[in-house]
Each structure stands twice: as C-alpha cells, then as structure tokens.
C-alpha cells in the first residue's frame, strides 16, 4: 500500500508541484488549502505524513501542529518561506518532525519524507517502552513517567530524551543533540539546546541527566 501524504498549502502552484512530484515517486497524495481543512483531514483519514505550511489561512500551521500533537503522532514536516531561526524553533517546539524552507528542491523534500517514514518504522519496531532506571518512555504514545508518575514533556523535550534513552550512558555533544532535534547538519547556536536540557533536568531529575564537562550530556539510570 502506498504511503499517504497530506499537503496543507494555500499556494496552489506549490501544492500542485509537490503533489505531482510525490505521486511520481509512488505516494498517494491529497491537498488542502487552509488550517481547518488540514485538521479535519489529518484527524479523519490516517495519513502517514503531513506537509504543513506555516502560514495557512484561518488556523495557522503552527496551531494546526500544536493541536494535532495533543492527539496524534503523525509525522509533520513544516513548509515555510520564513528563514528566521526563531520560527524554526517554534515549529519544532510545537511538535514538527522536520522543517523545510522555501524554495526547496523536490529531491530534498522527497528525501526528507522518506527519512521520516523510515524513522517511524524503526520507532514502531522498537520495544514499546524505553526504560532507564525509574524513567520510562513510550515512543508510540509519546508519554513519560518517573517512578510511575507522569511527566509532561514538550515535543522537543520528548525527542531529545528519546535519543538519550535509546543510548543510556553515551555522551552526546550539544551539536549532536541539536542535529537530532532539527534533523539538519545546520544547528545555528548550539547553546539553544541548553534550555531543553535545563527543563528536562527539572522534570525528570537533575541526577539523571549528567553534564560531562567539555563533551556534552548523558542519561544515566537512577
């Protein structure tokens, strides 16, 4: 069965060209042009990937992403003409899995979509719950607990903690963490990830997320 992609893009020329390219690669594609339609379609039709424009009429792409993340794990790629780093960070913080800036090349976009689908398959093939000491992380349900008590994490915090939990005791540099978060070799200011580390320590316990001076951070069993 062909992977199903929903494109939420109000510029018809862009939506049509992306849909044409994806169909040529064997994807099944539908398009919508506003935020409300994107929400309704994503909730109803079981798509494998959502390509979501940041600046949609009505409900913005950011708000669409925020709402879907409270109820769905559908992979989301943000499409936008904005290049400011803050917009990229906001998109990722509300739960986007990747971020592509217009104008983009079709081969690059298709490669990003395929990479997200591969990662999703790997996530589903992993053990249902990742456990590091008293910390338990469920990648499928996007839930976390410490000593059985639920911990509320932002999508970016969950993504970073997932990487650390898959490799307990391994030290990750700031750059590696930001590359994982942004799915890009360009990470801007590597210190931007420090805020996520501070918040994670507050939520899961400082002694679980250890600083290795001069190198980075690691998750340990406590």
What can you see in these coordinates?
There is one protein chain. The protein is α/β, with parallel strands linked by helices and 222 residues long. The chain has 2 domains: 4-124, Response regulator (Rossmann fold); 126-219, Winged helix-like DNA-binding domain superfamily/Winged helix DNA-binding domain (Arc Repressor Mutant, subunit A), CATH 1.10.10.10. The chain is 42% helix and 21% strand. It contains 8 helices and 11 strands. The protein has helices at 12-24, 35-44, 61-69, 85-93, 106-125, 155-166, 174-182, 194-204, and strands spanning 4-8, 28-32, 49-53, 76-80, 98-101, 130-132, 135-138, 143-146, 149-151, 209-212, 216-219. The strands form 3 sheets. The protein has a 5-stranded parallel sheet with strand order 2-1-3-4-5, sandwiched between helices. Strand 7 (135-138) and strand 8 (143-146) form a beta hairpin. Helix 6 crosses helix 7 and helix 6 (155-166) packs across helix 8. The protein is elongated.
